[in-house]
Structure formats: structure tokens, C-alpha cells
Amino acid sequence: MNRRSRIVVAALLVTFWAAAAVPATTAAVRALADRVTADRLDRPVDEAVLALEAERRQSVTGLPILELTAQRGRTDDAAGRLRQADRSWLDRLTTSASDRTADALLDRMESLTELRASVDAGRLDRRQIVSAYTEVIDPSGAAEPAAGSGGLPALSRSREILAEEDALLAAVSGGRGPTVADRIRLTRLAGARGALFAAAGTALPEEATRRHREVAGSQAMVRLHRFEDDLAASPDGIPAPAVWSPTFNELNTALWDLQDSAAREAADEATPRAVTATVWAGTIAGVGFVALLGLLVTTLRRRAATVTPAAPVPVPASRHQPDGLLRDLDRRNQGLLHRQLRLLDTLARRAGDEENAADLRRAGNLGARLRRNVEKGIVLTGGAPDRRWERLVPMAEVLRDAAAEISDHQRVVPAEVEAAYLAGTAVTDLIHLLAELMENAASFAPADSDIMVSGHHDPEGYLIAVSDVGPGMTDDDLVTGHEVMAAPEPPPGGTWWGLWAAGRFAARQDMAVELYNGPGGGLVAAVLVPSSLVTGRLEIDAELQAVAE
């Protein structure tokens, strides 16, 4: 091997070594730094949050100024300990999630001086005080933690929202009690807390998952659910602190213990990974260095060397299949949505102010649309939604529920709808199928036009037509639309996904969907429900069933 070839081989070896060693070393440093930083910061962050929650509650309960001043001092001490723990040479190497959390919390706590002055001067009412302190504790509110962040952030947010509910109840229990807006806010907090707590239970370590189930089934959690339901359904009345305060305190302690033990368990599981990453990085760097040194010695001695490229190490495919987990999460969210929609409906019926009632109806529509997306996700990933009917359902009710699941539901106008009854097993799929077709019609037709829906008996079943006055479709687009609805896999891009979803819902119940341009313009989507799923003689069928029994 001549001198030029040896130089090329050396350069390639250095490149390969760097390509392997740098990522491995970086990953090892990051894993080690994350582990060390979490040990250093997580406890001071939690102590600062707990101190802020205690100060928030005392600021709205009218305690003596000496007690409030003492709590403010404890909050400042917690902030000082967090500030001291946040200083580390590791920050120069990498910034972990714990670093970012601590820095953001310290930045928000800078506003405490101004907030306390506003509280002392009476410039904020009690509800505003709760909101202002909540912005300092965590401005993300009821938002879900970032995907992939694990169950601990969701568990922590669930406990913080429970403390926010407690503070808000303490703020509104005096005087005339909670307003309608307060009850709506408490209902939303309760829904967010429940969703976050359920999501946390699917991503915690093994032992923490078992303890999570114990807390979820505890008597304190049952009492909390009952109190939240009663509060949302009651149009008036002042919640007595003796009723809710002990339950909130008990659950807050249980959630704190669960969060603490889960953090320790997660840290114990992360330690072997950090050690493995460090050993792997050292192995790659050491072997590469030895190989490079050997090549240099060989080059100096001018001996020929044959370089055999190492075979690439196969990377095992991921064994994690998230579909089942996602379907389980969707079902949990579906149950929470059902519960929230029932509460919103109760509030809307009892609201004395028309404007508040209208807002509640709009909130209910948003919930119905969100439920549609959740159930759609369950079906399209191979599952079956929990919402089922055990009875025959009037077709007019099915059409009305389908219209309620789109944003422009007020544009859907029923034309001639012959009386018929649909089998309960097909109700959810037909609702979602019709909602997809109605939404397509509303999207392409003029915004001020109506979407006409009709239904009548057919020799082969029951025929439902969704008609609009939009531009219709070209012959090529009609062919493509039918092909998309018949395809088992979604098409690339998002243009045809609505029709593909409609086809999946139709296929589940052996329904047929046909698209054609109307004689007066616009598009008509016709759905043929097979005769095995529909009847127009509910009374006769009921009598025959009674005789058979």
C-alpha cells in the first residue's frame, strides 16, 4: 500500500470512529447528566410548587396576615433552595428537561413580588388571585404533557390541578358561592384532572402502576368524583369546606406519595441505562483509538495493511406496538368525554341566563366533535368504541346525532325522513359515516347554504341521501372517490381521508355509499343501509319479541 492509500485509509478510519464515538459519547453524557440533574432538581422543584400552592390557598381564605407572611417566607426559602440547586457545571454540557423546568419556574416566580402587592392592595378578587398563582405554578393549565414524556408529568399535572380545584373552591365558598362560570371552570378542571390521571396510569413503572390503580379505586377518589358530579349538576348552593376539604387533602397526599415513589422507581430503572450508555461509549471510543493508533504505527513502519470494513450491526426492530395502548387511552378519553357531555347538558338545561346556556351548548358541540375524533381513531386503528346501543334507535335521532358532530351543524336541514329504526350495533358507525359526508358537504358548499338530508325505505334496505349545492365532482374525482372508499389503506396526503374513513365505517356494517352529481347541481352522497339493520315496524317487532319470549 503506497503512502497516498495509507492516508486515505487513515482518514476513513478517523471518520468512521468519530461517526460512532461522538453520538455514543453524546448520548452517554446526556443520559448521565439527565440522571444527575433529576436527582438534584426534582425535589427542590416539587417543594417550590407545593409552597406556591399553599400560598395560593392562604391568599384566598382570608387568614391572618401573619400566617400569610410566614407562608410567603417559606415560599421564598423554597425558591432560594431551587435557585442554589439549579447552579451546576453540568449545564455547560447539556440541558435536561429538569433544567428547563427549574429555569422556567424560577423565571415565573420573579413576578411574585408584584402579585403579592396586588393581593395586599385588594386589586385582585379571589378568583383572579387563584388564576394569577396558577400562572406562576404552571401556565400550561389543563394541556396534556408532550407526547412521549412519560407518566410522571401527567401525574404531576393531575395533582396540581386537584390543588387548583381546592383553591378555587376555597375562594368561592364565601359570599354567594360559585357562579355559573365558576362551576364551568371547576367542571373543566375536573375533566382535565381525570384525563391526566388516567393517562398517567398507562405510562408509569410497574410498581407505581399498581399503586395508581389503588388510588384510582380508593374511597377518597370515589367521594371526589361524586362531589364533582354534584357540584356540576347543582345550579346553586355553596359547597361547605367540611364536605370537600378532607377529601382533597387526603387525595393530595396520596398523589404526592404516588408521584414521589414513581419518580424513585423511574430513576432506579434509568440508572442501568445510563451506565450501559457510558460503558458503550467508552468501548467505542477505546476500540477506535486503539485501532487508529495501530494504523499509525503500521504506517510509520511502512507495512501494508488490509482494512476490512466492519459489518454493520443490525439494529433490532422496535417491539413496541403502540396501537393497543393508543386504543386504551382513546377509550379512557371517550368515557371522560361522555361524562363531561352529560354534565354540560345538565348545566345547559338548568342555566337561567340564555347567553350562558348558548355557551354551554357550544361547549357541548365541541365535546361531541372531540368524541367523534376519539371514536374515529379507535375504529380506524382496529378497535371498537365503547358507545353502543342495546335497542333500536329512530333513524331521525341518528341523523340528528350525526349533524351534531360537525362544526356547521346548524346548516344540516332534514328533508323527508321516513320513520325507521336502526339496530343499536350499527348506530355509532352510521353516525360517524354520515358525519364525514355532512362535513364534506359543508366544506365544499357555500357557507350560507343548507345541507339537505333525506331518508326513505328502499327494496334493499333504507336509503339516506346527503345533498349540497356546491360545485360537485368531476367524473375522474367520482371514480377516485369510490376507489378511496373501497381501499383498505388510507391514500397518501390528507385530501381524501374523510371519504376513506367513510368507507371504513360503511364496510364495518356492509353499507354501500354512492357519490353522484345532483340533477340541479351539487353533490349527493347516498348511503344504503341493508335491510338486516333497519326496520320500520318497531311496535310489531316488539310484540313478536314479547310473544317469542
TrEMBL record:
The keyword Phosphoprotein applies. Residues 48-265 form the Nitrate/nitrite sensing protein domain. It catalyses: ATP + protein L-histidine = ADP + protein N-phospho-L-histidine. The chain crosses the membrane at residues 277-297. Its EC number is 2.7.13.3. Keywords: Kinase, Membrane, Phosphoprotein, Signal, Transferase, Transmembrane, Transmembrane helix. Residues 428-529 form the Histidine kinase/HSP90-like ATPase domain. InterPro entries: HATPase_C_sf, HATPase_dom, Nitrate/nitrite_sensing, TCS_sensor_his_kinase. Gene3D superfamilies: Histidine kinase-like ATPase, C-terminal domain (3.30.565.10). Residues 1-20 form the signal peptide. This is histidine kinase. It comes from Actinoplanes subglobosus. The lineage of its organism: Bacteria, Bacillati, Actinomycetota, Actinomycetes, Micromonosporales.
